[in-house]
Amino acid sequence: MTDTLLDIQDLQVHFHTEIGTVEALDGISMDIGHNEVLGVIGESGCGKSVTALSIMGLLQSPPAEIVAGKIEYDGQNLLNLPRKEMDHIRGNDLSMIYQDPMTSLNPVLTIGHQLMEPLLAHTDCSKVEGRSRAVEMLDACGLADPDRLMNQYPNELSGGMRQRVVIAMALVTEPKLLIADEPTTALDVTIQAQIMELLQDLQDRFDMSVLFISHDLGVVSDIADRVAVMYAGTVAESCSINQLFENPLHPYSRALAESIPTLEKDADRLPTIDGIVPDLHDPPTGCRFASRCPQYIGDVCNKYDPKLTSCGVDHDVACHLYTETSKATPPWQTPAPTVSDDIDKSPDDA
Ligand code: SF4
User: Fold this and answer.
1) 296 lines ligand 1 (CB under 6 A)
2) Is the model's pTM score more than 0.70?
């Protein structure tokens, strides 16, 4: 385990819209160590990208409002930084790769111009040095003939090449933390595998931390050391990637793990999770997964908000199944724990 580089505590983000307030993040907490890859997984609408944009300071306000919480990077709360300092950190230490490489690149500027821009804006290197570093980074990202590529435009490249250019752009200032928001979603499976291999190689080479966002647990398992499972603006479970596969505790995590296709499973009959993510304009009280949970244990789930609680070494879960009394034995191996009829008691007292 590495020491902490980024620490998010109780982050709450709301969006004020014409039809009401969307409670997009409901007090999430997660951290990333130096040289660690944290996978963030969950369905669309669970708050993964909002988390990424909050870290980068790129949420548009209004409509977004950071209601509470803190994002500590290297000991300083990014939410309190003046804009100039945040711009400096964003250009040098934090970088982000977006889902769609075509919309991340400016179609009327050459690849070279776009790669050198962050270097010239955020470092004191000259144009000559900037060009040399840009060419080196294109080469490191596996792009052939990088000198020629510097003078080409995005429309002249294939999808896989564009995503490699986007990765080169994100890494050209050698950030300490790279946020990759579903970087392979828009690519076909073969290119996806190549990009994943490239990201792993670059993470090792540059000793950087990565926050890797995906809705695909299979993809995350290829790269992540630890994982945070998000559901409806909350963190449902946080643990090592091995723990998630060998011993997933939250009913949502188990359902995600079971839905991964394997050679042994009948691809036509993969388990699914009934229902949809709740409308965050009017989120339910208590557990946000309750309406879909196959292990729902009664009113306690609807009445109390389950807090992220330690259930082992580096293994935290937000679920009422894991009270002090039921923690010792995984509940899916035993009958569901009995919850007191007295639901006015705190769930931790149950
Ligand atoms: Fe299911 Fe209740 Fe746990 Fe929510 S708190 S995941 S509803 S058992």
Assistant:
1) yes
2) yes
